[in-house]
Fold this sequence. Notes:
The chain is an alpha/beta fold. The protein is built from ten helices and seven strands. Helix 5 links the parallel strand 1 and strand 2. Helix 1 packs across helix 9, helix 2 crosses helix 4 and helix 5 packs across helix 7. The two termini are 32 Å apart. The site of S-adenosylmethionine has 23 residues, from helix 1 and helix 8. InterPro entries: Methyltransf_11, SAM-dependent_MTases_sf.
Amino acid sequence: MLVDQIELRRQCERVEQYVTRGVPSTLRTFDEFAACLGFYLDYKTNPEYLLAKYLEDKDVLDIGSGLNGLAVAVELMGLNTRVTSVSPGLVQPDFEQFQKDKLAESYTYTSADYTEERVEAARLVANSRSYPFFAHNLGFADNSFDVIIDNFAVFDNSRPEVKLVLIKSIEEMLRVTRPGGKIRVGGGLNFGPDWGWKEEILRNMGLDFAYHQCGVEIVVPSPITG
Ligand SMILES: C[S@@+](CC[C@H](N)C(=O)[O-])C[C@H]1O[C@@H](n2cnc3c(N)ncnc32)[C@H](O)[C@@H]1O
């Protein structure tokens, strides 16, 4: 047990060094998020509606939020959704400027929906609910969220050498998610040999999970009563 704790600490240090190097960030628009997270079928017919429906009326935690693109998009769409973002890159000194530049690239500021003022207001709301946490150490109370999103982030970056950190990160995700909530892992998951050991972790933890087109959805168990 003691050895495990020491090894976990060593692996955490490796992850922290790796993830905080530079500003490792992406800013996706809402339809890109939908595609990455595997809402493909409906994405083709109505991209905004489906992911919106999944998130509607939920407390959402976006882990590895890049430039907080999901939170910005949700604000701009006026969804009744509270997105909290976590990304270690938030502490980078050039984070805000990089975020502003990317927003200017992604939103053309031509329509009434996406004026520069509205995008800026959405950016500020998104940033006011963001924290520089790592997935293995989420500073939130138990049962705080209904949905966790991990898009091209923790699962995607994890390698076998930092297996204990991935396990700890999943435990943290389960801890902060309400019973019956969902953890949607999406994006560049490799379903080849690199994915097998991750699937084994989920199985060993006795989790209820299902594949979608480009990721996995874990349903957080409800406590057994009676
Ligand atoms: C490729 S970006 C993806 C950003 C965003 N989710 C998207 O889809 O546009 C990867 C993000 O995951 C974050 N990340 C990677 N490993 C992480 C970890 N162990 N804990 C928290 N964030 C992590 C990085 O800092 C970065 O913000």
